[in-house]
Design brief:
alpha/beta, EC 2.6.1.9, globular, PyrdxlP-dep_Trfase, Aspartate Aminotransferase, domain 1, 12 helices, pyridoxal phosphate
């Protein structure tokens, strides 16, 4: 029997986030002894051993509600980053903070400016909250800040800059970004999504926290899901003016960040050696892939993250399927806005080598008449 209740009109133009099959399902379906997942932008080296040990000790406390203020983590981050505690907001991943910013600050039909090819949840959540997403094309895979500034009008409430950008891995030169921040009217929120901050090693990458004192409309988002390897526990944080944190507190769920996630994040900050080792291995993997791809004649966006958008001049869906049949999962660039590209997570050296060998064979299969 058909359901007669109608959902909100805005949902008619929104599709659910596509979730892929599990590795176990893929192995069974294709009869593969092993599958290497290089499609999800995760830290393939896991999380700190210290985190695992502490979580074991915390299992007897699960009957307690989590601390709704995330006090221990807020204090730890305050000391680690050198900011006041009231400048920090802890979220269920930085995704939640994006939703809460929209809930707290975006009125009906107000506009939010963003790149056309970037983290897709900006656009989706703006629409769900009744706002209007304004999409500005990237330029060679990089945010076109000049065009984004030109898009500002009296309806503009916020601007999103994903830096490094997902899915291209590119950064905006720091001088350009500072000049942009300086020009944007102070009544418009500037949201710098720095989920991949720790992987950016270029001298051209902006160290943004020092700008908060001057620009009260600046919001910086970071996460424990990437380099700290805690994606399964969903912990993100924002650094911003204390007025903004107070407004977000009004619209958040009371117990928005789970107990184990808070505990793990505190311990992860204590193990900076693990973080540095992950960054080092990522740099080594990136250098290997860049050299191998260059020798094969493939181009790619210069990445400052733990993934690469590789241009293969072949239908991205077709190549991703060919790689899947060889036990390598990658993300087709087609749904991401680059139809003849694939996005690949920089992984362990063993996985990186297997990917290159599988890529050579898959390309030959795809170009055969």
């Amino acid at each position: 029997m058909a359901v007669k209740v109608k959902s909100r009109e805005v949902l008619q133009s929104i599709t659910a986030y596509p979730l892929g099959k599990s590795i176990l399902d893929i192995q069974k379906e294709l009869g593969l002894p092993m599958v290497r997942n290089m499609s999800e932008i995760e830290n393939v080296f896991g999380c700190s051993p210290l985190v695992k040990e502490q979580l074991k000790k915390s299992l007897n406390q699960l009957f307690h509600y989590p601390d709704g203020s995330s006090a221990n983590l807020t204090l730890k981050l305050s000391e680690f980053l050198g900011v006041d505690q009231n400048q920090l907001f802890i979220g269920n991943g930085s995704d939640e903070i994006i939703r809460l910013l929209l809930r707290a600050f975006l009125n009906h039909r107000e506009e939010a400016i963003m790149a056309d090819i970037t983290f897709p949840r900006y656009r989706t959540n703006v629409a769900i909250e009744g706002g209007v997403p304004i999409l500005v094309p990237l330029e060679s895979g990089v945010h076109n800040l000049s065009a984004m500034y030109d898009a500002i009008n009296r309806k503009t409430k916020m601007v999103f800059v994903c830096n490094p950008n997902n899915p291209t891995g590119t950064i905006v030169p720091k001088s350009d970004l500072i000049a942009f921040i300086d020009k944007v009217p102070e009544n418009i929120l500037i949201i710098l999504d720095e989920a991949y901050y720790e992987y950016a090693t270029s001298e051209e990458y902006l160290q943004s926290i020092s700008l908060l004192e001057k620009y009260h409309n600046l919001v910086i988002l970071r996460t424990f899901s990437k380099v700290y390897g805690l994606a399964g526990l969903r912990v993100g944080y924002g650094i911003m003016n204390s007025f903004i944190t107070s407004e977000l507190t009004k619209v958040k769920e009371v117990f928005n960040v789970n107990q184990l996630g808070q505990t793990a994040a505190v311990v992860a900050l204590d193990d900076q050696g693990f973080r540095e080792d992950c960054i080092r291995q990522n740099e080594e993997g990136k250098a290997f892939l860049e050299k191998a791809l260059h020798s094969l004649g493939f181009s790619y966006f210069p990445t400052q993250s733990n993934f690469m958008m590789i241009h293969v001049n072949i239908d991205g869906n077709e190549l991703a399927e060919a790689l899947l049949n060889k036990g390598i999962i990658v993300k087709s660039g087609k749904p991401l806005g680059y139809p003849e590209s694939i996005r690949v997570t920089i992984s362990s050296m063993d996985d990186n080598r297997h990917f290159i060998e599988a890529l050579k064979m898959a390309v030959k299969e795809c170009v055969q008449p």
